[in-house]
Amino acid sequence: MKEQKQFFVLDPRTKLLLVFVEAFFVLAVTGGDRLYWFRILFAVLPFLLLMASGRYQTFAIGVLVFALTEYMQKYIFPGLHGAAAVIMMVLILLISRFLPAFLMGSYVIRTTKVSEFKAAMERMHMPDELTIPMCVMFRFFPTVREECASIWAAMKMRGIGIGGSKGYEMLEYIMVPMLSCSAKIGDELSASALTRGLGISKVRTNICHIGFHAADYMVFALVIAGCVYWISGVIL
Amino acid sequence: MNEKKGLNGRDLINIGIYSAIYFAISLVLAFTGLIPIMLMLLSSMYGLICGIPFMMFLTKVKKPGMILIMSTIMGVLMFVTGMTWMPIPFSILTGIIAELVYRSGGYKSMKAAVLTAGVFPLWACGNYLPLFFQREQYFADRASYGQEYADAVMRLTPNWMFPVLLILTFVFGILGGLIGKKLLKKHFIKAGIV
Fold first, then answer.
1. Residue A77 Cα distances to A100, B33, B139, angstroms
2. Are B146 and A29 in contact (CB < 8 Å)?
3. Which of A15, A119, A162, A233 gives a 20 to 30 Å CA spacing to A54?
4. pLDDT, position B2
């Protein structure tokens, strides 16, 4: 992951909170109409964060997709009917709904190093049994995608792919190479991690300095304000 | 590494790798949920198709706890991808059951492994819980999908549907486990990977 200049840096724990808030209030639409503006705010926030962390490309794509879906929703779809139109519309709505959360996830994953994530988890006293697999997962996702693309290309050359007549064979021919190379990569990964002392029972040190700064407190204040507003609405 | 008990680094890395594969496949499958009938069959599809990597994962499982951790991670990921908090306790529950089933085979019996492959995908049924328990809110949130979609899903989900889904998922999971077993025999054992 290449280093990028960032205007302000959030603590990994704050980023985690943002992901949870995004999942709880925006995706799962907890709180209903009362939190409408809160939700709007959290739909805009990922864009700002992407800007601030210098990920202009993701930002630009996000804005473009957002504009496109809004446009289609407003001007093209009201006039359409039939099964295909319904499916398209659901797809578009799904995209517009998941986009903020997706961008937030992309921001968090791109700007958090695995060591930072681990350091934050250790600060929160999360058990290793849960954090190490998660670290490995984040490390492994790009690999899965890469391997999958290569296997897909190799199989296409042999005439196996979507449109092929045998669905079961396609499953086998993609899944089996995928799994066998994952097994190998997994062994290599464990060897590399063990040489760096993953297996020892002593407490491991971490080079990353994490801590809360002004930006973190701002986010906390915002989230707490939203929660208080929401709870007061439920109680009263 | 000297500890005999408990999970070591290698086990945890294996959990991470197979969870990543499992989750990647289920993400791709989730897009078929746009079609109402497929939404209902989603958990069964997880069982059927993810059965292959899962059987592979089971060959690496030799200690208690690994299946439970994987199941919990799935639940947490479902929460993060917007399925409300309900999948988390549900996935922990199904994880414990799957753990017990595989344990009964001494962590090596192939029969128990296939059975576990049937139980494990039940975590995905946790995604349906809001659909049954918070029906009004679920459809209010998705009102923008259009009335046709909501009606179609509504028709497919009377309350008795939930146990049916569980059973269906279990059956398809076993099927996936059997396919996985066949592929393991055909490819991986010969190649010496397992």
1. 22, 21, 20
2. no
3. A119
4. 43
